[in-house]
């Protein structure tokens, strides 16, 4: 407490000295009032710092809003061609912007999220930069995420789907696997079409063959382009939740099949064209995974069994947590037994042996009566 008091005393301005009658500096007089700027140096410094922070916030906000519109502009025509309704850009903050689209076959809705560096917030900017310097795996790059929801609810899924399948840039793979629960379903696979900068996740090799070798989908073709591979952070097809459920398995009406496309914010026209190519690939995948009979029946059964096992594990873990937090109430018989054990623990060794012998004889008599019946 004394340290806190000393710290507060150190930043508290000194008590103003009484005004001197003899003063030849700048001052402003009005009737009985006198204002001498030289007496308010500390206040002027604080006001300048606050004003500078506010000015940086306004300039950073204006800067980011212009960058957001320019960054999302190349993809609006593609969305308008594919969806019947595309809402104008909405901003949650100067660094987070969203476009919503709906009205397309095989896609319920699309959410496009742009995350920029917080130029409007000096403190957050310093924190983000320091975190990137301390943690080599931290990803502070500006990102555009396209989230396509293909189906939702117990009757919202078409076809068997492709389980969880993903192509992830190795630079951010460790962090992404920690953050996303659905990436615990597939295993790492290898394919010649996947560049060395990326990793392939799949629940079965047959699913990979279908996705990479089906004509007019374009995953392998776009990955072959160096610029397109460079901007791609992650392409994920999933029917599992991104976050681990904490209250047991999801109910059927809460489940969704989605495609996540995460790319670096383009810095050139070639990269913007590459992102547009990835958007088209994601929409092609939406049409592909909703086809009935896409995968072999035995592969589809394996996907179903995997999800049943995961649901059982989640239900068991949740039940165990509930029992630990709210242990079941003891029955009358269990309370009597506990009370008897507590009373017997107070007895001496000789008395405990005598009580044990009496219990043994009592049990023998009960057993004899049951056998006579």
TrEMBL record:
UniProt feature, compositional bias: Basic and acidic residues: 344-366
Region listing for Disordered, in residue ranges: 317-373
Pfam families: CCDC47
Segments crossing the lipid bilayer: 40-59
InterPro entries: CCDC47
GO cellular component entries: endoplasmic reticulum; membrane
GO molecular function: calcium ion binding
The organism's place on the tree of life at top rank: Eukaryota
Signal sequence segment: none
Compartments, as annotated in UniProt: Membrane
GO biological process, one term: endoplasmic reticulum calcium ion homeostasis
Keyword tags: Membrane, Transmembrane, Transmembrane helix
Topology class, membrane: Single-pass membrane protein
Name this protein carries in UniProt: DUF1682-domain-containing protein
Organism: Cutaneotrichosporon oleaginosum
Source species taxonomy: Eukaryota, Fungi, Dikarya, Basidiomycota, Agaricomycotina
């Amino acid at each position: 407490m004394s340290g806190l008091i000393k710290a507060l005393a150190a930043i508290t301005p000194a008590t103003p000295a009484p005004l001197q009658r003899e003063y030849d500096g700048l001052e402003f007089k009005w009737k009985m009032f006198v204002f001498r700027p030289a007496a308010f140096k500390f206040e002027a410094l604080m006001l300048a710092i606050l004003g500078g922070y506010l000015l940086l916030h306004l300039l950073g906000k204006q800067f980011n809003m212009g960058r957001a519109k320019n960054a999302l502009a190349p993809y609006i025509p593609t969305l308008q061609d594919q969806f019947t309704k595309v809402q104008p850009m909405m901003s949650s903050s100067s660094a987070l912007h969203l476009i919503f689209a709906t009205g397309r076959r095989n896609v319920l809705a699309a959410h496009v999220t742009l995350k920029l560096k917080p130029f409007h917030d000096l403190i957050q900017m310093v924190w983000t930069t320091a975190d990137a310097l301390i943690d080599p795996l931290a990803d502070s790059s500006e990102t555009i995420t396209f989230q396509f929801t293909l189906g939702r609810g117990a009757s919202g899924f078409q076809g068997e789907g492709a389980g969880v399948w993903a192509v992830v840039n190795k630079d951010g793979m460790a962090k992404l696997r920690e953050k996303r629960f659905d990436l615990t379903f597939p295993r790492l696979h290898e394919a010649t079409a996947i560049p060395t900068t990326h990793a392939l996740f799949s629940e079965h090799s047959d699913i990979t063959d279908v996705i990479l070798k089906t004509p007019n989908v374009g995953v392998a073709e776009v990955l072959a382009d160096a610029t397109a591979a460079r901007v791609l952070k992650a392409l994920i097809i999933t029917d599992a939740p991104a976050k681990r459920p904490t209250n047991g398995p999801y109910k059927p009406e809460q489940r969704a099949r989605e495609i996540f496309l995460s790319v670096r914010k383009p810095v050139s026209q070639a990269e913007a064209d590459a992102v547009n190519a990835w958007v088209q690939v994601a929409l092609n995948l939406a049409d592909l995974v909703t086809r009935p009979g896409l995968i072999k029946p035995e592969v589809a059964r394996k996907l179903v069994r995997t999800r049943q096992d995961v649901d059982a594990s989640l239900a068991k873990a949740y039940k165990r947590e509930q029992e630990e937090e709210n242990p079941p109430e003891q029955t009358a018989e269990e309370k009597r037994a506990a009370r008897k054990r507590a009373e017997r623990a107070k007895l001496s060794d000789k008395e405990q042996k005598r009580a044990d012998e009496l219990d043994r004889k009592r049990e023998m008599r009960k057993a004899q009566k049951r056998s006579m019946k």
